[in-house]
Specification:
The complex is a heterodimer.
Chain A (H helix, E strand, L loop, with lengths): L1 H18 L6 E7 L5 H4 L10 H16 L3 E7 L5 H9 L6 E5 H8 L8 H6 L9 H7 E2 L2 E2 L2 E2 L3 E8 H7 L14 H15 L4 E2 L7 H12 L17 H15 L9 H9 L5 E5 L3 H8 L5 H5 L1 E5 L10 E4 L1 E5 L6 H16 L1 H5 L8 H4 L2 H4 L4 H4 L2 H4 E2 L8 H16 L5 H17 L2
Parallel strand pairs in A: 1-2, 1-3, 8-9, 11-13
Antiparallel strand pairs in A: 3-12, 4-5, 6-12, 7-9, 7-10, 7-11
Helix pairs in contact in A: 8-9, 10-11, 10-21, 21-22
Chain B lengths: L1 H10 L20 H26 L15 H7 L2 H32 L4 H12 L5 H12 L5 H8 L14 H13 L1 H12 L3 H9 L4 H12 L1 H15 L4 H6 L11 H11 L3 H32 L1
Helix pairs in contact in B: 2-15, 3-15, 4-5, 4-8, 4-9, 4-12, 5-9, 6-8, 9-12, 12-15, 14-15
Classes of the chains: A alpha/beta, B mainly alpha.
Chain lengths: 439, 311
């Protein structure tokens, strides 16, 4: 009987201690993409020791948890981009507190009142919008308010296998690669590349892919000064400018200047195995590819690795399509402790943006992009130009991921010859306008 | 006299004699309690969503609001949408590729493995084992087989200096690739159903046939096949209903590509309702799928029933 009483007393004391607010850390639910890599970085709290998007973000969150014992961040990792799941979570009233969202997608959720404006919260922790780069500020601001803490600006790049470029002779006297200045020059250099190496000039992930096609189209429409989204509710893509771009990529496809049946993972493997000259991929692989080029015995270590913005092929504006990642906060009632914890989390990421920029993404903060530490990172001298070149779609354009799928599907059909170019352009335009008209 | 004798049993309840229950099967409301739990879940999880889906299909609804009534507007949009019409064709094509193959291979395997040997038992387990896998695992396995350059198929073709067919990205092969993965995944159930039907055929019929000197072909044609006719119909109906709902394999292997050639109706519904937030249009497409499955299953049932009546 005595033993029973002691047991009850112990259990009651334990329960009281656990229930006491003074012992409990504030829980924050964070949902992100960028992959899972707990096996390698699950316990690492030093972001400087991590590489790649997944490694760095995992280590940053670990460090935040270690530095802030009063806050505990629970991380849910979703498959990129995770918006289907997020939409379902919002619809069921069970959204996480903090979420990774592309700047191009912010307006979808913001227009439905699902995200919290962050101006006051950021101000309370000493983060002011004037610290953001112009690209980051434009991307994160909707209707005059900030709806996501920008953490980077990203774009697509020409990742170059210098060994193969040297074999072809496409190298300047200073060792930099010779990149084309017009569509004709691009096709001529690709032919030269194929003749000399027997390999395709481009490594592209074209198997059931949509994003790559779309980003390529946007970039080369910007370079022709095509204002295809002059009205955010009505696109004009059935134009001579679009036709030029699609015919250029069709020629690349038809003449075998590109890999054809690879998916995203397959294209990375192919480029790292030296199976093509230029890999069209984003800023996010710069860190990993640079690490490969420093590893003996790899294809990129043979003759080196270089990375550049897309070459200027047309006579219009110097521009290329860019987007950015942000941390957005879901709209819900919260305690002052929870708000303070969210503020701490956002401030931590603003303060540590340099670590994130080691992925290859461009920093979202003027101080970081101007810092010597950033300039000293490999290849930043060539890709920093993206900060000025980068251009998103107008922020009022909604359903940008759905639009991306439609453009990608139609471009893929036209380039692979399943559909006439004119028919694909007409269908692309009408399908997007039908989508936008029914929002 | 006889009337007097029967009177107390039927017309004198006041005397305190209980009237015996004339019909124990007569409806009694308290019996409802036995089916209430089932009815509750059936209504909330099936009937209510079905009706709500119909209601949504007449509205311009998005994921976060039900919107205004637009009558048949969503259905008109659907039938003007080339991608939807393509997805309907894709679904029929997929059903055509998989259902007869599943029924025939399932029957063939069942006929081969309907014996009491250890090898047959092992092979039955082996052929059924793929059915227990989740769609994610199945598609992962088949992506490893089909993936260009490093996949199993590419490696085997590579030994002979040939290029493997691009089952994931070739417009004419992509749906066949998904069908192959599906048949490999689903073959267990038809085989097991046929096996159970074959094992229910009484042994004395075989003995009678043996006395008549019937050969294997005659036994198959005159005994086995007629005996499992109903199971064959069951397998076909089950598979039609299942394969009409193709989603996971197409989503995970090809994302509906290339150029929507492997996008089935369910993927169209998912895409429209959850990725484009056009819930009304997605609901309308799901009503069309509901009707298609209903017609296919009913047609199959009616045709086979009328034939059964004639014989």
């Amino acid at each position: 009987m005595k033993l029973k009483k002691i047991l009850f007393a112990a259990v009651s004391a334990g329960a009281t201690a656990l229930a006491s607010p003074s012992f409990a850390a504030t829980e924050l639910n964070v949902q992100r993409f960028f992959g899972a890599c707990d096996a390698d970085f699950g316990t690492n709290t030093d972001p400087a020791k991590a590489v790649g998007e997944c490694g760095i973000i995992t280590s940053l969150i670990n460090k935040f948890n270690a530095d802030n014992p009063d806050v505990h961040v629970n991380v849910t990792t979703v498959e990129w981009p995770g918006y289907d799941q997020l939409t379902a979570q919002f619809a069921s009233g069970d959204a996480p507190d903090i979420i990774t969202i592309h700047e191009s997608v912010l307006s979808d959720y913001q227009s439905k009142g699902l995200l919290m404006p962050l101006d006051d919260l950021l101000k309370s922790v000493g983060v002011t919008p004037d610290a953001f780069t112009d690209a980051a500020s434009n991307g994160a601001t909707k209707d005059g308010k900030i709806y996501g803490l920008p953490i980077d600006s990203w774009t697509m790049l020409y990742h170059v296998n210098m060994d193969l470029f040297k074999q072809v002779g496409l190298v300047n006297a200073d060792g930099t690669p010779i990149l084309p200045k017009s569509p004709e020059e691009l096709l001529a250099q690709a032919e030269q590349f194929k003749q000399k190496t027997g390999k395709p000039y481009f490594v592209q992930n074209l198997a059931n892919e949509t994003a790559l096609y779309t980003r390529n189209l946007y970039t080369y429409l910007f370079q022709q000064d095509s204002d295809f989204f002059a009205d955010p509710k009505h696109v004009k893509l059935n134009t001579p400018e679009s036709k030029k771009v699609i015919e250029m990529y069709k020629a690349i496809f038809d003449k075998g200047y590109t890999t054809k049946d690879l998916d995203y993972g397959g294209s990375i493997n192919a480029f790292l195995a030296g199976e093509g000259g230029v890999h069209l991929n984003g800023t996010w692989v710069v860190g990993d590819y640079n690490a490969q080029s420093e590893t003996k015995g790899t294809a990129l270590n043979k003759g080196g690795y270089a990375v550049y913005p897309y070459p200027q092929l047309f006579g219009g504006a110097h521009a290329q399509y860019a987007d950015g990642h942000t941390w957005a906060v879901s709209q819900k009632d919260r305690t002052p402790e929870q708000m303070a914890a969210i503020g701490k989390f956002l401030k931590f990421f603003a303060d540590n943006d340099f670590e994130w920029s080691r992925t290859g993404h461009l920093p979202a903060y003027k101080a970081d992009i101007a810092s010597d530490a950033f300039k000293a990172l490999p290849h930043r001298s060539t890709i920093a130009a993206v900060a000025d070149l980068g251009k998103p779609l107008p922020s009022a354009v909604q359903r940008q991921f759905a639009i991306q799928d439609i453009i990608g599907e139609e471009m893929s059909a036209a380039i692979s010859g399943q559909k006439d170019v004119d028919a694909a352009l007409a269908d692309m335009e009408s399908r997007i306008n039908e989508l936008l008209a029914n929002i | 006299m006889a009337d007097q004798l029967t009177m107390p049993q039927t017309a004198m309840p006041a005397a305190g004699v209980k009237i015996p229950s004339a019909d124990i099967y007569a409806p009694q409301w308290r019996n409802f309690m036995f089916v209430a739990p089932f009815l509750f879940f059936f209504t909330t999880l099936l009937v209510f969503p079905l009706l709500w889906g119909m209601w949504l299909s007449f509205h311009k609804a998005d994921t976060f609001s039900s919107g205004k009534f637009i009558g048949l507007g969503n259905y008109v949009r659907l039938f003007h949408d080339k991608v939807f019409l393509q997805s309907v064709w894709n679904t029929f094509y997929f059903v055509l590729l998989t259902v007869p193959t599943l029924a025939l291979i399932g029957l063939f395997l069942a006929l081969c493995l309907n014996r009491r040997t250890r090898t047959a038992a092992v092979l039955r387990t082996l052929f059924f084992s793929s059915s227990v896998l989740s769609v994610t695992i199945v598609t992962l396995i088949w992506r490893i087989v089909f993936i260009p350059n490093v996949g199993l198929l590419s490696t085997i073709y590579g030994w002979f200096g040939a290029t493997a067919p691009a089952f994931i990205s070739d417009p004419s092969l992509a749906m066949i690739g998904i069908a192959i993965a599906t048949i490999w995944w689903c073959i267990g159930l038809p085989m097991m159903l046929f096996l159970s039907a074959l094992q229910q055929i009484p042994q004395d019929i075989y003995e009678a046939a043996a006395l008549d000197n019937a050969n294997r072909w005659q036994t198959l044609r005159s005994i086995k096949l007629p005996s499992i006719k109903r199971t064959f119909i069951l397998v076909v109906i089950i598979q039609i209903v299942l394969q009409f709902q193709l989603f996971g394999q197409a989503w995970l292997m090809t994302r509906g590509g290339p150029n929507n050639l492997t996008k089935p109706i369910v993927l169209y519904i998912y895409d429209t309702a959850f990725r484009r937030w056009d819930l009304g249009l997605g609901a309308a497409a799901s009503e069309i799928l509901f009707i298609l499955i209903l017609i296919a299953a009913m047609a199959q049932y009616l045709v086979t029933r009328s034939r059964g009546d004639q014989t």
